[in-house]
Amino acid sequence: MIRIALLVALVATVLLPSAVLARQPATVSGFVRDGGSGETLILANVVLEDSGMGAATNTSGWYSIGGIPPGSYRVLASYLGYRTAAYDVSLGPDEHYRLDIELERSGVTVGEVVIEASRESAEEARQLGVARLSTATIRTLPTVLEPDVFRSLQLLPGVKAASDYSSGLYVRGGSPDQTLILLDRTTVYNPTHFFGFFSTFNPDAIKDVRLYKGGFPAEYGGRIGSVVDVYNKDGNRRRTGGSLSIGLLASRALMEGPIPGGSWMVAFRRSTLEPLLAALRAAEVDGIPDDFHFYDLNAKVNLDLSDSDRMSLAGYFGRDALDLEIVTDTRLLLGYGNRTGSLGWVHVFSDEVFSSFTLTSSHYFSRPDFLIAKTVVSRDNQVDDLSMKADVEYTASDRIGVKGGFWTGVFTFRLRDVFDARESMSERISAPYGAGYVQASWMPAADLTVLGGLRASWFGEGDHARLEPRISIEYTTPPGVRLQAGYGRYAQYLTLISNEAFSGLDIWLTTADGVPPAYGDQFVTGVKGRLPGRVDLEVEGYYRTMRSIFQFDPFLIDVSGLPYEKMFLFGQGYAYGAEVLLSRTSGRVSGQVGYTLGTTRRRFPELNEGEYFPPKYDRTHDLTAILNFDLSRRWRLTTVFTYATGQAYTEPASQYRLVDFPLGGTELQAVISPFNGARLPDYHRLDVGFVNRGRFLGFADYELQLQVINAYARRNIWFYFFDFEDDGTVSREEVPQIPIPVPNISFSLAF
Amino acid sequence: MRRANPTILLLLLFVAACDTTTESVHRSEPVVEAYLEAGQPLPRLRLTETSPIDGTYDPWGIGLGAATVRVHEVGEGGEITWTARYELLQGSSAVYAPVEDRTVLAGATYRLDVVLPDGGRLEAETVVPDAFELVDRNADEVVYQGSEQFEIELTPSGSRGREPIYIITIEGLDPRPARLTPLYLDAIYELGPEDAFDPDTLDVSELTEFIVVSSPPLNEANYRKEGESTITAWLPWFSVVFYGPNRIRVSAVDDNIYDFIRYQAVQRGGSTLSPGEIPNILDGVEGGVGVFGSYASVEVVVEILEPPS
């Protein structure tokens, strides 16, 4: 009781002065939209000129500025690539002024579509640990065959790629399963196409991508590392239009348009590899599948029921399919993919109270069938996640904002293995889960912001519950330099069985009795400011722990009949590092330079004799430089240079062989090595791309992209393979990453 | 108080974050290899040394020939009940044989004790799986990929503290290229069913590693039917390399063999570890590496008939 009383007193102490001092305050609130399409703009900046008051729009495009003393003001709304809009308003005592804002594009030339991280446009993007990417950036960056969201995120400091072949995100020392992937507030469990080469997100359909690299607030949870929050476009509310894009790997089409009181959007993408595969098969190249394709479909409908109510229905369907004859009488059939859906309702209770409610459904499946000499080995692997979430934001004053909500649902996992027509394993877990949070932002002074929150989470399988406090503080010095610090605790109830080289068989497993959740603490600090020449500087440091992490035991050959908890290795880890990002978002020459100095370690009793070791993706130095240069109004040159320390690997020191083994026809070969004690050669690569834009036959805008990946043919090493020769020696084979320059060409029309 | 120099602090951070590498240095270790089979005489034992990774491993040329080798039979209380003395086999530098015959007892514990030429010790222990028996078989011959698969019914084995783990081994008793099943004809010689070929012209040495093939270690839960006291093992068609007579052997293995094989499989790749991550093998050998393992087996011969064309 004493503690509760103290808490109430503390809250009252914090809240009451603002309430008393801000006598009869007024409020300005509303949506911010693109004037051309009516699309809501996320993180647009709305300020009252010369007052120090302002707000950024939330993920629904809503803003609210409260606690405004009565009087006349000029409201300025800005967003990168848009003309700043100004509105003069007079606010009476206790007036609730609804101001919906539409911003007009600023006649964007090629040179102005760049990475969004500037102070003017995206206030939240400068928050601790947050990075954003515009879809224009994603589409413009040189890429292997197809523009890709995750491969673009891999260029940010603190985010690493496992290899050229993987779009998996390794954020601040965390493995991919430590990153929560959300599409329109719905969890996506296998965000890959092409077995991990690409991510599932169609860049044409996406409105906004935000990456919380760490220290994220209490409204997010479920992973101990980071969050990727992706929102699809709502669709054009003004006119019907679309775009077409033809590429080497896939082609894309998007249509969007208005409906009475709303909008719709449909985007479809399908691989177009069939002609290439047919040619390779005709040339009798080994290993060419009889069929390989993937597709995805994004669709969304929005409807304004009133000025204060808005409904949205969004869906994603994606699938990869493979039919490969390996040798005679041996065939692999694989289908995997995701289906997600969300039904959202945004309701504005008042100018100060904004809410959103979402029902989500996420289904992931992976069904491999191996047919080997009439022996069928098959797996049915499914995840279903049905959930309901609610978020309520309350703008108490110009200094205090409160947000709370919950996320509850049922996670169901099914895994059934059949070997030679006999069920060898069947596991089904259906677990309710829930999380609730409350967070408050408080500005005790104009230059100081405190964001504190608490998240409580529970997972039914094993009946595990955790409390996760979060806090961050930001102080802005007079020249506009932001000093930031944050701490958070995070819990995770899921783990992923995956392979860096092939994501099509990914399996999610949960906590249970005897399998406690993983948890970790994150400490983050940052300094952000603007340098001369319109260059933004961001420096962040982090330290994070990973405790009680559980992962599938890689040494288990057969799990039949095993108790569930025996399927895991339990360990821990830590990571720390520093990131520097220099970015210039406008002008004829723009781009960014990102550098990461990082360390990550893991420890499992079964590996490296129980000592800490660097996982393969540990890279001490990581440098990425993106340069955009407008050659003319129609031509742009983009280059991406990446340098990274070589990854950790195991270099064997000794070998031996067992030649008398009676239960097999061959000798057993083994090596002795310090685990991951060596480093591959340093990695570096240059990608170059040209973009040409203009009008196409008077009815559409076209965009032609000519790109070369690995322009100077750097032969980066993926890993070494050690092969035991018949003469008693061991040879080392290099398995390269993309070893040659890979051209890419695509042509897009927007009408 | 002296202020810390920011340059030095930065340098310290940089140095602290520098790549940590552990030099891969070869240190010669003794390698032991012995497999005790329940109901059979104590086996011979091979004692060699590891080779540097850039050297050559010759299991006949790098033997540890001056070691003192003993295998103790250990009672339930841990006491030594009997000791077998081993001597170097004449003409060999690596293979030791028991001086006197002794049958390996199912369920018994055996301890290896080796005093190496340099005075070092090598020790290992194995618990022999319980013996088990063939109860029944469904056929003497089956047609390859026919409607009936070959099945055998067995009494289950037992193993101290855990469920039994089995390895099924198939040995082709008539291993000729002309007798290869289509899968292996393609896998070994890259010949499809439509390809005409003269089997006498094919290199038979390519067959060596396919004459005996084995399953990975599999848990008993794969074979036991709910509520039944016996287990039923069957022959998956993909494991049949040769038409004709095949010896099918079902072996219950001890922890040492099981651990060695599953760790060795991870070393060869294909696990959930990233490519290039190679863990050392868990083998239960103190003072060296290798296998001092045991198993119990039953075997039958079945005729695999080539399907009518």
Describe this protein with a few key phrases.
heterodimer, A: 2 domains, 22-stranded antiparallel beta barrel, 4 helices, 5% helix, B: mainly beta, Immunoglobulin-like, 3-stranded antiparallel beta sheet, 3 helices, 17 strands
Q: What is the 3D shape of chain A?
A: globular
CATH second-level architecture of the domain at 134-253 and 297-305 in chain B: Sandwich
> How many domains in all of chain A?
2
Give the C-alpha Rg of chain A: 27 Å
Count of strand segments of chain B? 17
Strand content of chain A: over 45%
Largest interface: A-B, 87 and 99 residues
Gap between N and C termini of chain B: 94 Å
Shape of chain B: globular
Task: Write the topology of this structure.
The complex is a heterodimer of chains A (751) and B (309).
Chain A: H1 2-21, E1 26-34, E2 45-48, E3 53-56, E4 62-68, E5 71-78, E6 85-91, E7 96-98, E8 101-103, E9 130-133, H2 135-140, H3 149-153, E10 159-160, E11 170-171, E12 179-183, E13 186-187, E14 192-193, E15 198-199, E16 206-212, E17 226-232, E18 241-246, E19 250-259, E20 262-271, H4 274-282, E21 291-306, E22 309-327, E23 330-348, E24 353-372, E25 375-395, E26 400-419, E27 422-445, E28 448-459, E29 464-476, E30 482-492, E31 494-499, E32 502-510, E33 518-531, E34 535-552, E35 568-584, E36 589-603, E37 621-630, E38 635-644, E39 648-649, E40 654-658, E41 668-672, E42 678-679, E43 683-696, E44 700-709, E45 717-724, E46 730-736, E47 742-750
Parallel strand pairs in A: 1-7, 1-8, 12-17
Antiparallel strand pairs in A: 1-4, 2-3, 2-5, 5-6, 9-16, 10-11, 12-13, 14-15, 16-17, 18-19, 18-47, 19-20, 20-21, 21-22, 22-23, 23-24, 24-25, 25-26, 26-27, 27-28, 28-29, 29-30, 30-33, 31-32, 33-34, 34-35, 35-36, 36-37, 37-38, 38-43, 39-42, 40-41, 43-44, 44-47, 45-46
Chain B: H1 6-16, E1 30-37, E2 45-49, E3 51-52, E4 68-74, E5 80-88, E6 95-98, E7 109-115, E8 121-127, E9 134-137, E10 141-143, E11 151-154, E12 165-172, H2 182-189, E13 212-214, E14 218-219, E15 231-234, E16 244-253, H3 255-267, E17 289-305
Parallel strand pairs in B: 1-17, 10-17
Antiparallel strand pairs in B: 1-2, 2-6, 4-5, 4-7, 5-6, 7-8, 9-11, 11-15, 12-13, 12-14, 12-16, 16-17
